[in-house]
Amino acid sequence: MSMKIEAETPEQYIAQLPADRQPTMEKLRETMLKNLPQGFAETMNYNMITYVVPHSLYPPGYHCAPAMALPFISIAAQKNFFAIYHMGIYMDSELLNWFTTQFSTYGKTKLDMGKSCIRFKKVEHIPFELIAELAAKTSVEQWITLYTKTLKS
Question: Whole-prediction pTM value?
Fold first, then answer.
């Protein structure tokens, strides 16, 4: 079963998922929408639901593809896991340390993580409360500052 989904909207993305995976993606999406600070916008990038800093707030856009808004968090249902791609964790060691420490207190599973990707093989292992806290921790202004500082270094 391939999980390559091409959708123009988050609703289309979720509707194309297998029925048993839709509620989890809806809950991840709802968690982001309720907890991300004001200013982030929801869109589709790289076949994932993505939360970005719109060009109206950061005109240069994403340095790899300036026509795209600056990405911050993406959520996806991959073939064997649910994924949260969080650019702030990738660039901010303090945030990464906070998250990994907090994650260990949930005790549901061992953290499965790449540089910016947090993977969950089982729905019951997703700590939605912690994901909500993580989403709320970085404002648009803080993300732009960190991103531009990292680009210059």
Answer: 0.93
